[in-house]
């Protein structure tokens, strides 16, 4: 269940739990799960476009600065004050009025109210960051002046230079200036800037909350594969990656291949996005389609012309929340994250799409005749090349674990060595 503990019930049809097929708009699957005729898979670029449009940006919330990290700005960050807010000294030394020599009449430390105005020929000892007394025309650095018996002389002939080592009020910004645009990621630097500019709280688009449901009777949470069972690889892989992509993920719920428990988990979740793994195909215990049908969801993407990962799907629950079904084969699930989950998370979280990376293939890669291929590659940033890696089968993670990116190989022919292709950088850390 989501963090708030609130359960959102999905709409039900009286007299039965299965919605009419018209509610399962894009699907042509029969209610039992097996497919009579395969619906046309969307092309990979089209599926990504649909995913981008499937998530409505979450409403902004006010957060104290220390809880705003990792969100994005809901609106522009406008300065609440001039910065600096008052004229200050940039150096330790003396603030002076007019040309020397000067009589030292007091002291100005950071954090004190401004010293009374200086007359021509007067000076105060001043600390870096202290408010400049009115009338001061320059600052003489400690190492450029010589003070005896309250008489100050510059030890460098060119001094004083008017304005030297003074940080004038408003040098960095004026109150009301836009410091950052809406959608900027809230980094530690942004927190510092916001505090300097007078903010105690920020209005941010929150991280979308993801409910992650890992399906499969065969999955083990620990130990060696045994008795036909395998270790769950996606439970450890997905949460930290989805967090990196801007999501809030409380944890993973592992469910058996049981339609009722999947329905209850989906029905009881108040997450902004539900992601399942496994059960997308048409095997005897693949329940994602029938359960979606029972919830009254609308399928937006039902299969994508991409290898691996072609059974991935994207649906919209009756209340509009998105649902992504990732295939169970681990590299196919990774392909589904890149194709569907990442764009949906960006849309929900108000994050801009990163600029597309490109690199030249260091070796030829056979393309699929009709589908896009996503192939793990090691990037050489200096040479701007991408080396295709072995062990890239849909059930394998060995290539991925050594990869920096997935190269996008468009359908048809062979992508020859030297061909420049799009690369989706795997920003793990
Ligand atoms: N008759 C057909 N069979 C299959 C097709 C097809 O088109 N026609 N597509 C194949 C492709 S491609 C994929 S991908 C898989 C997708 O299947 P599901 O999404 O239903 O996934 P499962 O059947 O539950 O599992 C598939 C495979 O992956 C292993 N798995 C599942 N979850 C995990 C996990 N968390 N960690 C590690 N491994 C996992 C599972 O044990 C299976 O070996 O369907 C093909 N079949
Ligand atoms: O999606 Mo499957 O082969 O492409 O693992």
Oligomer: single chain
Q: Using DSSP, what is the number of strands?
A: 30
Ligands, ions, cofactors: ligand LQZAQKY5, molybdate ion
Q: What do the pLDDT scores average to?
A: 90
Spans of at least 5 consecutive residues whose pLDDT stays below 50 are 1-38
InterPro entries: MoaB/Mog-like_dom_sf, MoaB/Mog_dom, MoeA-like, MoeA_C_domain_IV, MoeA_C_domain_IV_sf, MoeA_linker/N, MoeA_linker/N_sf
Cofactor: Mg(2+)
Pathway: Cofactor biosynthesis; molybdopterin biosynthesis
Pfam families: MoCF_biosynth, MoeA_C, MoeA_N
Write a brief structural summary.
This protein has 429 residues and is an alpha/beta fold. Helices cover 17% and strands 29% of the residues.
Structural account:
Helices cover 17% and strands 29% of the residues. With 429 residues, the chain is of the alpha/beta class. It has a 6-stranded mixed beta sheet, with no helix packed on it. Strands 18-15-19-23-22-20 form a 6-stranded mixed beta sheet, with helices on both faces. A 5-stranded mixed β-barrel has the order 24-27-26-28-30. α1 (44-53) packs parallel to α7 (330-349) and α5 (259-267) crosses α6 (288-295). The two termini are 27 Å apart. Residues 214, 216, 218-219, 230, 232-234, 277-281, 283, 286, 310-311, 327-330, 332, 394 line the site of ligand LQZAQKY5.
